[in-house]
Amino acid sequence: MDNQTKKQKQTEATENPSIYSLQLDEMKEWLVEKGEKPFRVKQIFEWLYEKRVTSFEDMTNLSKKLREQLAQSFSLTTLKTVIQQTSNDGTMKFLFELQDGYTIETVLMRHEYGNSICVTTQVGCRIGCTFCASTLGGLKRNLEAGEIVAQVVKVQQALDETNERVSSVVIMGIGEPFDNYGEMLSFLKIINHDLGLNIGARHITVSTSGIIPKIYQFADEQMQINFAVSLHAPNTEIRSKLMPINRAYKLPDLMKSIEYYINKTGRRVTFEYGLFGGVNDQVEHAEELAKLIGHIKCHVNLIPVNYVPERNYVRTPKDQIFLFAQTLKDKGVNVTIRREQGHDIDAACGQLRAKERQDETR
């Protein structure tokens, strides 16, 4: 899509907010303003999240007038599926087009314990991690809560065809969730609500690259949401090379905020640690990592990185991955190695969108 076409789409895009952005009380307040009975909110939420309709006209137990008012005030279908890839292991990757022409990615991963969906919170990203395809092109804009919710709804609609269900959600797609904190928090409340998508708090995980003020704020929310931190390095020098955010939010200060979170909530933290060949994957790095985090309530998720053509990092050999994990275990650190999925499709976060953007400019 060229710039002129994108500008045209942005002009044509509806200014109505996504109905998926509304929490129950907000929907109820809107109904009362329109002279409707508050009980209608339950009917509307049922159409949205249980029956997953694609048109307000399909909400047949609502009056024609109310359906018209909903259509005039809100957008329902905000995502268009541009590409849908399915891996041999069942992983599904979606490239969705927003109403303003921008594209985002969403991934469905199949596990023994159920179907997990990884959602995106921003169009692009400003954090600038040197290993990530999501940062290519920078940050374009934040997503509305409803645009994040719609990702889950769209994937669930795809699963409806095989009578499957989204059982867990991870907020680890394109963008930094804590850089879009308010919309991210609203999204969490909507998908967790029993009249919404009814996904249990302990089946939801949010990840941050380390925006320290928001970690303190998130701790004070006292939610039962799982919390993960993209660490990727055992010391300040390596982390600053991999993650420029470390220059603004220093590693020692990050660790203090994580300790605050653990003390405040009583919940453990997961450290995401991507292994990059020859950079952070040696035994001495594992020993240093154990020294950094071994005293706190945590778990380490080792991630064999997917190759991104635009980046120069190489994969860590399997025997080195196992050695790294064993070194942590020997030091008393709880660790798992993430099972690799979607290897035969554009698996790395932001990779499918980056490829689509390259195609646009050819």
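Second entry:
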Amino acid sequence: MSSDTSTEAQEKLIDLAADFYDQFDRGEIPRMTLPTRTKTNIEYDEDADVWVYGDRESTRSANSIRGARKLLKAAYTIEFLDNQLEEDRSSTLRELYYLSESWDSEEAQFSTQDESNQLIEDLEIVSEVRREDFHMRPEESGAKVMGPLLLREQTRRGDRDIHCQKDVGQGGYQIPNNPDTIEFLECDADFVLSVETGGMRDRLVENGFDDEYNAIVVHLGGQPARATRRLMKRFHDELDLPVTVFTDADPWSYRIYGSVAYGSIKSAHLSEYLATPEAQFIGLRPEDIVDYDLPTDPLSDSDINALESELEDPRFQTDYWKEQIEIQLDIGKKSEQQALASRGLDFVTDTYLPDRLEEMGII
């Protein structure tokens, strides 16, 4: 990250701390106001073509013990991040949680990692600075890329050029925590196929799908990390590549697609940076379960509740999603993408995906 970006991040953090001080100085109860992060407070931004937070707000205020503790933790975290930037160091979200154990105020220590993660998200929103610019890293996501792409990656030992087929093993190229440090040099790909599971990703690579169809295969590793979503957005915006998302046929997998295309509720403040609205769903559909007579599992109560919730989710208010969800609720079944192997190991690469890609006009 450039020194200019580091300086800007530091300045915005200090401004937040100064705002607390100014509120004290004016005799006001310190507070911090943020958008309410629920699905009822996301709205469609037609100009950006993404889902963003609406006008509802929540306030972190010191007028209660609970609120005062939240602001105390924010102040300690701001000081930690400022020192980290000053020293040009970095840390992981997990390390921040444990580091708080050493803070001199027990009231400022985090009780769970979810709490520290949420505070970093709060600071992102109010400062309008991404956590990557705070030098905060997630744990390794394990997401990998395989395909006809030559890129240049910044490392502590200087830049290095990597071809994501010729210079990597079967595992592929591991996506760095901040993919904005990558420079695209050459690309011979025609589209991006992002895949939910490692098993299916391995099947595609073993069958040479990336070679035969000039595809960049991205392993999402379940719910995709921010770095993965950012890289796919860059593939679309900068390389003009269609992006497709291949998942299981269950409500949780539909949310994986939703986070790629529409943005997630918890990171709606970053939708313009992370979401790819043009991404197309090529995952297993409830209608495929019926058409291909695939092996299935029954929907659990939590699956049914999740599907019914998606029918009310503004990100899934299209005729396509309503139809597919209603089909799934009607048949009461779910299926994994690996279930396509019931029709042969090569069925997914020889028939299913080529047929779907042709229907979508991608090949």
